[in-house]
Specification:
Chain lengths: ~110, ~110
């Protein structure tokens, strides 16, 4: 299993995950936990957005680079990370995610 | 001063703020703390990205709505929030921002 597939499996265990999609360099969903309609919308439309974001970051500061893109909606938080030619899209439920973040911050503080 | 301008001034006081731009419905930077080159790149290029993100969110789930967009780069985190016809773009230093988030989470936990 490739590194990117290992990362994909790890992401699926994160709190509040509603779905994850692994997109290859041709814009095809090679692995997905979502229905085929959502998968193909995400796979097809996210690439031009990431391309636009990368170009913007480079134009403002040529030595800087996009690491990920996050879209917050009323219901979910969508993370898009590009690893080499692949792209990972992760959709999480905002309520569960926010709760997990609060807990995680406080427990990491306790262990200091 | 309008609500959106009050919000703008409040954002400028956040940790690690490198700059903020208030963009009107015509895509012009009506207030900015950044240089004119960066302001016009952000003001002009962010709108099509936000439009694309909104369309994507609606297509996947018609009852859902984009609240904000975040781009993480090696050096900064760029937040874009749309309020009515205005758009607020906020650029923060990642190191200062991450440190502030850790502190804020732990202090809010302490006061529970």
């Amino acid at each position: 299993m490739s590194d990117v597939e290992t990362t994909f499996d790890r992401l699926l265990k994160l709190p509040g995950v509603m779905g994850a999609i692994l997109v290859n360099g041709e814009g095809e969903a090679v692995r997905t936990s979502m229905d085929s309609t959502s998968s193909s919308i995400f796979a097809g439309k996210m690439r031009p957005m990431v391309k636009m974001a990368r170009a913007l970051v480079h134009e403002v500061e040529p030595t800087d680079e996009l690491t990920y893109l996050r879209m917050r909606t009323l219901k979910s938080e969508i993370l898009v990370a590009a690893e080499n030619e692949h792209m990972i899209i992760l959709v999480q439920d905002t309520n569960i995610l926010d709760e997990a973040r609060r807990n995680s911050s406080s427990s990491s503080k306790k262990s200091e």
